[in-house]
Amino acid sequence: MNTKSETGLQAIILAAGRGSRLNANQNNVTPKCLVDFDGQTLLEYQLSALKQVGIHQVCVVVGFGAEKVMDVADNQADFIFNDRWSETNSLYYACLCRHWVRGPVVVMNCDVLAPPEVFHRVATSPDSAFAFDSSSGTEAEHMKVELEDGYLKSMSKQIPKDRAMGENMGMLRFTADACERLFNEGEALIQSGGLNMWMAAAVEKIARQVPIRGIDIAGLPWVEIDFPEDLRIAREKIWPRICQTPALTYQGFVPKALLPSFEEEDLQEQTEVRRFTSLPV
Between the chain's N and C termini, which has fewer beta carbons within 10 Å? Predict the structure, then answer.
């Protein structure tokens, strides 16, 4: 697949992990991006939301459960397979995409459920930007952020509570220059032993080189689905709000659950499967 994006943007969805914290039964684990919302997987929803903001060229980094993920996203994305998924993290996943990216790009986690308005705000930013929630960021599990004059200063789970200004949502936009810097810093970290680092480690480094604007989404319904309780909240509270609040839709977009006759655009290109697993370490 090599469909040209209407906006010039590409998008990467990081979906290689096992999601073991979400699944109590380790013998029957569903990849996090395939959790179901009224007959639609989270991944299908994310792909639809990206399409609604003009992003049709999407790469999904797969690993655990790759065949299941690829079956769901068939003809809607390119795929890069990470056969080191069990020993790597989001930094490594992202760096596998270096040769796929050709310009500005949106990078997002596969376990984030958010309304189309968030996709719109991030995708239409004129510069590098990231979505964050200023009403969150107090728990140890949160990827906390610190800003200065509206721009990212630091991003880490280790930021002290008295300095944290919110939680990174897991959806970021990089200009072509910032993306090149991200890959450079990411590969340097990997070579120095950072196979299992979060992508935030490289983002924090490039924030010292180029401005990355914070987009505050406080008040909008969203959730990162890491634990069973997160999934319960997503299904009982967040998803209904996304479905039932017209003000949160963008350009007439509504979730698939509200459109029973909806069919995806018939793309003619064949899904491209790539295997990039040889980053220097």
Answer: C
| Separation between Cα atoms, residue 78 and residue 37, nearest integer Å | 23
216 and 166 Cβ atoms separated by less than 8 Å: yes
Question: What is the number of residues in the chain?
Answer: 281
Residue-wise pLDDT tens digits, 43-97: 999 999 999 999 999 999 999 999 999 999 988 999 999 999 999 999 999 999 9
Could you tell me the sign of the dihedral formed by the alpha carbons of 99, 64, 42, 40, in that order? positive
What six digits make up the tokens of 223?
């959730």
Rounded Cα distance between 252 and 255, Å, is 10
* Distance from C-alpha of 11 to C-alpha of 173, rounded to nearest angstrom: 9
Q: How far apart, in whole angstroms, are the C-alpha atoms of residue 149 and residue 78?
A: 37
Residue 60 is given by DSSP the state E
DSSP string, 137-197: --STTS-EEEEETTEEEEEETTS-TTT---EEEEEEEE-HHHHHHHHHHHHHHHHTT-TT-
8 Å CB contact between 116 and 227: no
- Residue holding tokens 């991030």? 122
Other beta carbons less than 10 A from residue 3's beta carbon: 18
Q: Which residue has tokens 């069973």?
A: 228
Say if pTM beats, i.e. exceeds, 0.85.
Answer: yes
Q: Where are the alpha helices (DSSP H) in the chain?
A: 42-52, 66-72, 90-95, 116-123, 176-191, 200-206, 228-233, 239-244
Q: Torsion over CA of 132, 140, 25 and 16, rounded to 10 degrees?
A: 50
